[in-house]
Amino acid sequence: MCIHNKDQCYLKPKRYHRKTMEILPLHLGVKHLLDSGLHKVPGIYIRSKEERPNVVHREESFPVLDLGAALNSSEARAALVPQIREACMKWGFFQVINHGVPHSLVDEMQSVAREFHALPNEEKMRYFSTDTESRMRYGTSFNVAQDKVFSWRDYLRHSCLPLAEMQDLWPEKPASYRKVTADYSTRVRNLAKFLLELISESLDLPKDYIDKAFNGCSQIMALNFYPACPEPDLVLGIGPHSDPGSITLLLQDHVEGLQVMHGNEWYSVKPIPYSFVVNLGDQIQILSNDKYKSAEHRAVVNSSEDRMSIPISMGPNWESLVHPASKLVEGSPVFKPMFYKDYIMALQAGGLNRQWLLDTLRT
Ligand code: OGA
Ligand code: NI
């Protein structure tokens, strides 16, 4: 684990206060800046006019799937497959309710995550690193060592597998972090497996096709914290991107902020208490031979309330060679094969504002 290295300089030109020209310790995070009395957004956070969130986003009924009956009855489960197919085809995004993860555990996860972000900065900075290969790190924006424009976000990000090994690397504070996160990530992993089976079937593939093709799974969790922002119209909490893995299950609090791109417009995803927002990642787009798309999304912030989200990104096992399922290929496959590990490394090297990596794999 890397503690802030004094020889590494994040304080590049332009990382100063817009009015006073004072150099700002931006790597310490957005919350820290605000706690130090900042009232204006530093220049490095300001997005270009085209990227700013001041676009009209329409309301539309976003798919909400009730899993309650399907978890217990095979008939109800079968009835869910066409609903999943439609949501995957149309949006690449849906919300799930009655998913079996206990509400009490969701509450506990949200409280330990909030408690973590409320810790003194010195405590959180023990885990600070800009090494994108690190299996656990605290950071801000995406990667302060390479971002050209910063995102209004502080985060902790860590792997959840292998659980026994990872648990010892997770934060020591709050005291219940390791236990709650172990339970929560296990329950969400089981839900993800259930959804990936349904997604397999929705592609007319055997139920266990994705699990076998991806040699099991990897699992990364993040605690995203988006402090209320004095100038929310100039910044983004997280810039437009698609998630690289198989599916992401995101838990958001009551504050709206997540937006999904659909037909060239941004749609806001209204929070539903105790639901998960599920989105398809790039590896499902590859495996499905472009039948399903990994939807582009972003997060905006607001001036009145902090927002927190906890995404769990499932992915293939790192060593898996991912390619289109042969049953879905007519003629030549749309994508070239690539090891998942190499995909992630290429992505990390390019940052979030990369050219669409997926497109480089098109044949
Ligand atoms: C992410 C992400 C959106 C949000 O962390 O990949 O898309 O609402 N987050 O926090
Ligand atoms: Ni995302």
UniProtKB/TrEMBL annotation:
The record ties this protein, via Pfam families, to: 2OG-FeII_Oxy, DIOX_N
Q: Which domain of life is it from?
A: Eukaryota
Which residue spans adopt a coiled-coil conformation according to this UniProt entry? none
Start and end residues of each Fe2OG dioxygenase domain: 213-316
UniProt entry keywords in alphabetical sequence: Dioxygenase, Iron, Metal-binding, Oxidoreductase
Q: Which GO terms describe its molecular function?
A: dioxygenase activity; metal ion binding
Please name the PANTHER family in this protein's record: OXOGLUTARATE/IRON-DEPENDENT DIOXYGENASE
User: Family, per the entry?
Assistant: Belongs to the iron/ascorbate-dependent oxidoreductase family.
Its protein name is 2-oxoacid-dependent dioxygenase
Q: What's the source species for this entry?
A: Selaginella moellendorffii (Spikemoss)
